[in-house]
Amino acid sequence: MRRDTHHPDTPAYHRVFVPAHCYNRGFSMSSSVTGQDATGASAPSLPLSERVPRSRVILASLVGTTIEFYDFYVYATAAVAVFPALFFTGEDETAKLLASMATFAAAFVARPIGSVIFGHFGDRIGRKATLIGALLTMGIATFLIGLLPTYYAIGLWAPLILTILRFCQGLGLGGEWSGAALLATEYAEEGKRARAAMWPQLGAPFGFILANGFFLLLTIVMGFVSVAEQGTDHPFLTWGWRVPFLASVVMVVVGLYVRFKLEETPVFQKALDQGEKVRTPLVEAFRGSWLQMIQGTFIMLATYMLFYLMTAWILSYGIGSPANGGLGIPYRDFLVLQLLAVLLFAAMVPVSGWVADRFGRRSSQLVITSVILLFGLSFGLLMDPAAVGTGEDVSTARVLFFLTIGMTLMGLTFGSMSAILPELFPTNVRYTGSGVAYNTASILGAAITPYVAVTLNASYGVGSVGLYLAFGAVLTLVALWFSPETKDVDMANVVTRR
After folding, report:
1. For residues 313 and 294, what is the distance between their CA atoms, to the nearest angstrom?
2. CB of 432 within 8 A of CB of 184?
């Protein structure tokens, strides 16, 4: 590629004339386009096959996160409805549920480790190869869970291996999110970064819908209602629950195919061209961006807490026995309510991106998090068994209203996070820094949240669970208040101190 000698500081991927229609579709760093530069000279040509269409970037980021979140939520659903009966023993149903939730939390412990491992390679060798590795890690672990014998076949080895495979799932997702977010933001047009970044965020509701929709379909086809009514010999608990885990391999193959078609992002390629690659991204991130990692962690805190209360904990609360503090709603009925509510989650993600581009990341998140705080204070009013009813007397309309509010807020807060966190960090540590912040928040806001919520509800009632969410929202508001507005950050030119 011929360099423009009149502008030596111009980024490598801007040193040729690119027609507007081609620029809007995106292009690879190795490409060129026939045209003229500022001097009127002819620039090298861009073979059509070398371009990276924006649709391909969108598909690669969306498909990958959808698969990763599908794998993650398949486990979350099984951890509440299946695993307590098949992988843990004892007469105390609450104790078995807590044990299952503990294995669920293992992935969140693994996620920061995954972000460090994959972040290191993502900032050293590139986004594309690292994203492929993250997808394989999650996919293999999920498939093996589908083959795992239960406690009744191999004893204590079953929950032990289950925990290890769950840990591996966490490693994969720890590397996936930040890479997919960078893929979207580093290809984005200026002024539209939050809207471009919302595509990988849609993987969360899409993965949730696929995972829970799959389980719902299986329970309907196989006639499964609950363990309490039908015991552990039902075909769904014998082999049916394994199907969603095993089927994930098909989606992983599709995801790998899409990602192999990608080129490296132009922003990262520029960092390579300018020699800005660092030897140890984690060390460099802690040296130059430690404050941003703390800010990013607590900015994500309330989002994580809200989501895992609205998915993992609320499922256990909704289908739990009234004698144990639950509402006693049949599993299948409650799953339908969750699936209806999560549609609003998906619908609000693009809205979140638009709002963040229009009004700024910080101001929009301050307003949304304040509403999350108020929502937390309403738990006792909306969802106390005395108010909503239990068993056959439960008000499903009231439960759906509660879920709808929670999922709407989730879409509004989550949608722009894939722009906010990467924008806090420079190119050469962006994969590591944003990944560590995002996944450390997963320990504080997601790993322990279902466990703490079950304990609080059993001891003090559902209102205390809402106070727990409100406390997390206060911490996020503090982090947002002291964080900068990143809407106009130049993603290409920011580097760490050398």
Report:
1. 26
2. no
Q: Are 33 and 46 in contact (CB under 8 A)?
A: yes
**Would you state the pLDDT for residue 183?**
79
* 132 Cβ contact list (under 8 Å, min separation 6): 256, 259, 260
| Cα-based torsion angle of the residue sequence 479, 484, 490, 491 in order, rounded to the nearest 10 degrees | -10
Structure tokens at 439: 């996944």
Higher pLDDT, 181 or 144: 144
End-to-end CA distance of the chain: 28
Query: 429-455 burial, b if ≥16 CB within 10 A, otherwise e?
Result: bbbbbbbbbbbbbbbbbbbbbbbbbbb
Sequential DSSP letters for 361-427? HHHHHHHHHHHHHHHHHTHHHHH-HHHH--GGG--HHHHHHHHHHHHHHHHHHHTTHHHHHHHTS-G
Could you report the per-residue pLDDT of 31-47, keeping only the tens digit for each?
Answer: 333 344 434 443 443 33
Beta-carbon count within 10 A of 148 CB = 18
Q: Tell me which DSSP letter residue 437 carries.
A: H
How many whole angstroms from its chain centre is CA 369?
18
Q: What is the mean pLDDT of residues 204-215?
A: 91
Name the band, by pLDDT with cuts 50, 70 and 90, for residue 346. Answer: very high
Pairwise CA distance, residues 482 & 374, whole Å: 21
State the CB neighbour count (10 A cutoff) for residue 92: 10
Kindly tell me if the per-residue pLDDT of 156 is higher than 70: yes
pLDDT at site 33: 37
CA 366 from chain centre, in angstroms, equals 21
DSSP 297-353: HHHHHHHHHHHHIIIIIHHHHHHS-GGGT-----HHHHHHHHHHHHHHHHHHHHHHH
Q: What is the CA radius of gyration of the chain?
A: 23
* pTM listed for this prediction: 0.78
Comparing C-alpha atoms, which of 418, 5, 473 is closest to residue 195? 418
pLDDT at 51 over 60: no
* Token representation of residue 175: 């590397």
pLDDT for 91 equals 66
Tokens of 220: 């309907």
Other Cβ atoms closer than 10 A to 258: 17
Q: What is d(CA 214, CA 349) in angstroms, rounded to the nearest whole number? A: 23
| 445 DSSP 8-state letter | I
Q: What is the pLDDT of residues 271-282, one digit of tens each?
A: 667 666 667 888
CA 378 from chain centre, in angstroms, equals 26
Highest mean pLDDT among 77-91, 106-120, 368-382: 368-382
The DSSP 8-state label assigned to residue 196 in this structure reads H
pLDDT tens-digit readout, 362-392: 999 999 999 999 999 999 999 999 999 998 8
